[in-house]
Write a structure and sequence with these properties.
Layout: E1 2-6, H1 10-22, E2 27-30, E3 49-52, H2 58-70, E4 79-80, E5 87-88
Length: 106
């Protein structure tokens, strides 16, 4: 078992855990309740941590986390959802209105 990611946001760590599990990568979150110790120990020690269960999944998990943390290019153009017609800013990868994923860019 290896630690792959840590940040001050439990929401971000949980989201990455969900992404990895969708890819069939077993993982778990540690320190999800440690915020109560904040101030008593160094703040980075109480941040939530994402751990990958199997060493053979570590490389793929790292690629998924790196791609997600990098995020989309800020220069992406607006796009229109092909299902509901909603206009969305380029950084969004799915329609907020209907949930349809953004079509692949040319």
């Amino acid at each position: 078992m290896k630690k792959i990611y840590t940040t001050d946001s439990l929401v971000a760590v949980q989201h990455l855990k969900n992404l990895l599990e969708q890819e069939g990568i077993a993982c778990l979150v540690k320190n999800d309740q440690m915020f109560t110790l904040g101030g008593g120990v160094p703040f980075t020690e109480v941040w939530p941590q994402l751990w990958v269960s199997r060493d053979e999944d570590l490389q793929r998990a790292g690629e998924i986390v790196a791609e997600h943390v990098k995020g989309p290019s800020p220069d992406l153009p607006q796009w229109d959802c092909p299902d509901c017609g909603e206009t969305l800013d380029g950084q969004f990868t799915a329609c907020w209105h209907c949930g349809r994923e953004r079509p692949m860019l040319d």
